[in-house]
Amino acid sequence: MRFSSKNLAAFYYQLGTLVQAGVPIRSALQSSRKTAPRAMRTAVGVLSDCVNEGVPVHEAMERCGQRFAPLDKHTLDMSGRSGALDVGLLSLSKYYESRAAARNKLIAGSIYPALLLIVAVFGSHFPAFFLGAAGGKPYTMANYLRDTVGVLGLVVLAGLILMWLLRWSLRTPGLNVTVDRLLRTVPVLGRLRFDYALIRWVSSIRLMLRAGIGVVPALEYASRTADSPLIAYAYKKAAPLIGSELQVSQALALTDVFPEYLIQFWATGEQSGRMDEMLERLEAYYEDRWRRSLDQTATWLPRIAYLFVVLYVAYTILGMYNSYFSQYDELLK
């Protein structure tokens, strides 16, 4: 199991700050044995011992199993080769800090809607439970639990199954590209997810360029490890055209995956020779747009919850009235 984004952000920030201040990586890791997040201290001890033996940090991470992501290892490998290890560490810290902040914001925005739904489910059936009857029939504790805990349990189970299916489909070759393309069309959430993938993609390319890696190799690795299967597919489609026939911006434009804004800035970077500056602007632009989409998501979650609550309460009331009308019809007969 990998470490949490919150712990990784803190660890990389501590390490990056020490290295930036001129502290050797061996000493920085030795210091982090006691100051790193508690859940990471055992792994930090392994990293420290390996680095003291002369093993590079990214190779030392391999000895920790799957605790560190491939992107982390590659980022530290590239930044270490260029002599900018602190830049790589602080870049990873920023990345995981953004992930943790996004997760916390979505969770915080979901708490109130979830509580509202729970109150609606339990409250709508409480009168029948209190009176001990519903629709002329006895209404026991078992009935109440079936209509409340049972319903909420089914909702949670359906949500977990949907999440599992989504993750499975995004890991299945062939299917993942289609699912990713469909997810991109979902209002707000689709753009939120794709913009986040673009931020990481642009940031990875920029970091590798600063490490002295060429544009094409940097583009290839960043696309292969991107958070979006659609980006990886688009690169595979554009790769045969790059260099021999078209410039990178022209090849990417033909995929119909990358936004026009990104293509324009990439073309400007190619023509002016200021690719790093253009990539920096792109990263800032998509990060700002991603944060605005995140705010919109947090704002709309309660509204969506209100809609579900209204529909559920309306359904419950109609069910009660239908039961009363059925009894009335029976009496008339």
List its salient traits.
333 residues; Receptor-associated Protein
What do these coordinates show?
The radius of gyration is 27 Å and the shape is globular. The protein contains 15 helices and two strands. The protein folds into two domains: 5-68, no CATH class; 97-333, Type II secretion system (T2SS), domain F (Receptor-associated Protein, Up-down Bundle), CATH 1.20.81.30. A two-stranded antiparallel ribbon has the order 1-2. The chain is mainly α. The protein has helices at residues 5-20, 25-35, 41-52, 57-62, 70-81, 85-131, 141-147, 149-171, 175-184, 189-210, 215-224, 229-238, 248-253, 260-272, 275-332, and strands at residues 133-134, 137-138.
CATH topology of the largest domain: Receptor-associated Protein
What is the assigned CATH homologous superfamily of the largest domain? Type II secretion system (T2SS), domain F
Residue windows where pLDDT falls under 50 for at least 5 positions: none
- Compute the CA-based radius of gyration: 27 Å
> What would you call the structural class?
mainly alpha
In round numbers, the mean pLDDT is: 83
Distance between the termini: 66 Å
Roughly what fraction of the amino acids lie in strands? under 5%
Question: Topology of this structure?
Answer:
Elements: H1 5-20, H2 25-35, H3 41-52, H4 57-62, H5 70-81, H6 85-131, E1 133-134, E2 137-138, H7 141-147, H8 149-171, H9 175-184, H10 189-210, H11 215-224, H12 229-238, H13 248-253, H14 260-272, H15 275-332
Antiparallel strand pairs: 1-2
Helix pairs in contact: 1-2, 1-6, 2-3, 5-6, 6-7, 6-15, 7-8, 8-9, 10-11, 10-15, 11-12, 14-15
